[in-house]
Amino acid sequence: MKIVTSQTLAILFWQGCIGYGQVVSPSTNVTNVAIDLLDGSHILHFLDVVDAFGHVSARNPDNASQFIMSFAIAPALATSQSLVTYEIDNATAVQLTFNTSVTGNAVPSGFLERYIHSQIYNAFPNITGVVHAHTINVISFAAAEVGMRAQMGSAGSVGTLANGTPIFDFDSLPTSILPENAPHNLLIGNEVLGDALADTFQNGSEVVLMKGHGMAIRGTSVRNAVFRAFYTMQNAEVQSTATLLGALALGGQAPVGLPPRVAMDATVTFESDSLLSRAWALWTAQVDQLPLYVNDLRS
């Protein structure tokens, strides 16, 4: 017997409010991506990469000028009825992905920072998955203005840039991007700010640290972006510990991290379909054990 949780009741109520009878079946491609989006949202929460805030998105596999992400809801609570299709151009809501009768202004309010996603997709046509998270041990690096370098093979996508991962500093933006009369609240709330963030990415790293805020991760799929987000968090812990140990044993010498060739080859290996699928199978099995997480596209 399936346990009826408060979240399940909330989903049923929400579906009734928006006209559940109008739910349509998108293409198989979109449905498969949506399944990964819901799993990815739940996995990121389960693994403590996100809490009530943060989000993951996917480029629409049927229309490269669009992307799909949840409206403004905690990642752990995302279901098919919270998924929205957006235009990359100005991050405008098109419709609920699984209820095409709800369009435009009738779509519930989206994340203010959906421009992180739209502008990364706009800048990088090969990117099909994006994660934004406010992970605490990653924020520490940006606060100290210390870039991260890959310390282990599973985090090879962090890169081995000389100064570490690039750091986006909201408060240092010129007034042409952040006018004096605009909110200085760290949030990427428009296309101009989103473009500035996207421009911070550098070849050799799939991560941008955001000072006082979090991180942005670009990936070749939802699963890939989630994998990178988790192991960026793990890498931050390893690098922090290695830095402290280095201060004790080596007179303050910072950890160098992996050589570039090793990081590059390790990325190819660890992000291969076989290893990524192994991690994904474990993570989905873990979230499936908890009633908090509901992926109604496959349950």
From TrEMBL:
GO terms for biological process: pentose catabolic process. The keyword Cytoplasm does not apply. This is Arad-like aldolase/epimerase. Residues 35-240 form the Class II aldolase/adducin N-terminal domain. Pfam families: Aldolase_II. One of its GO terms (cellular component) is cytosol. Residues 1-19 form the signal peptide. Keywords: Lyase, Metal-binding, Signal. GO terms for molecular function: aldehyde-lyase activity; metal ion binding. SUPFAM superfamilies: AraD/HMP-PK domain-like (SSF53639).
